[in-house]
Amino acid sequence: MIKKIFKNNHLKTPHTYALLLFIIIFSSVLTYLIPAGEYAREKKDGQTLVISGSYEQVQQQGVSFFDIFRAIPEGLISGGEIVFYIFLVGGTFGIVRKTGAFENGVNKVMQTLGSYKVLMIPLTMTIFSILGFSIGLAEETIIFVPIGIIIARTLGYDALTGAAMVILGAASGFIGGMLNPFTVGVAQTVAELPMFSGWGLRTIIYVFILTAAITSVMLYARTVKRDMSKSLVYELEQVEGFDDSVMEAARFTKRQAVGLGLIVMVIILNVYGIFTYGWSFNEMSANFIFAGLLAGFIGGLGLNGTFDAMIDGMKDILFGAMIVGFAKGIIVILENGQVIDSIVHGMTTLLADVPSSLVIIAMFILQFMLNFFIPSGSGQALTTMPLMVPISDLLDINRQITVLAFQYGDAISNVLFPTSAILMGALAVGKITYAQWLKFAWKVILAWVIICCIGMSVALLVGY
Questions:
Q1: Which among 323, 322, 461 has a CA at the least distance from the CA of 401?
Q2: pTM flag (> 0.85)
Q3: Transmembrane stretches, by residue range (predicted)?
């Protein structure tokens, strides 16, 4: 009977939204099982700090059945700034993408650099890494994979090299995260830290991360160049065939160049506004809307075409935006049931005698594993940071290091777990199997883990 069940039914990983709903339900059960309690808090230097030793049990506040479902809209309202920022940035990218600026711009750059073949891999990966740490390039990675493969095959490499250039390039920047609003920005907002603060050490670690990725891809590409039979996707290359024709770039117009220029300008403006005027997600959203509309009109989309493209862009980003509400719903339940402080109290009691360096590594591993179930940086930040921040306060660990543990745990696992829609979508476009990807990527992923653990340890030693 059991064999028959497994034969007729394929076991599938639960949908991310379904999993988050299960966690919300589980959290509601915890409000009856875990004693309610709370810490006293105080305001200091703009942060709400937990006062050590102030934990007290209070009257049990179990949530109702209706509260389970009300937590989702309450979560969306609570995370409204972030939700609408994600939607509006997605809309802006939808507009610029519709003008053809991304594809044609990248093609033009690659064709211009064509004679410097040895530099193609590091330059391509650096470009995508910049997009990764500045605007959190994620879902958009998928549309660039075919371009990466064309570049790689033109240079005599294989499809895996081309896909890795794009995926690992963007991932390197995403891990660095110096100006990434979706991970570092959200996590620092929850931790009540100045947005994008502490970027100096992140930049140093990013350089090592990017160097490891470029080295890994170039070593593999050199092996493939010498002997194509050693390619991990050799069968695919035999079927696809090697096209030694010169890569033909579509015409890159001045209008498209202006559209890309507007995106670059709004990123710079947002960074300046954050550090100079203390801007948050609302101001950044407004700037992206303005830049997107200008790019659409200048790009020749017209009034209706511009807004159609904006809606299409919002549709593409729907998964990441709505997941924020579900993730926040978990915290809404735990806060309403007044058990979140009890969980923090229990965890800090267990970790009280553990060295700070090991606590940080434990946080990193926890965030790394959680990304299997919550493959959304902003969603994971909103789910876990409300727990991690009080723990770090009580154990006298700087909140910046707690953000690092989240940032690295979330970002590295994005190129490992099959629950990552971005990774699986990119591999599907390149016709690369997940097993082939693992055979190639495990070494660089291990290197990244080691680099990040060393980086967090150094941060702890220098009082980052």
A1: 461
A2: no
A3: 16-34, 76-96, 116-138, 159-179, 199-221, 257-279, 285-305, 317-334, 354-374, 415-434, 440-462
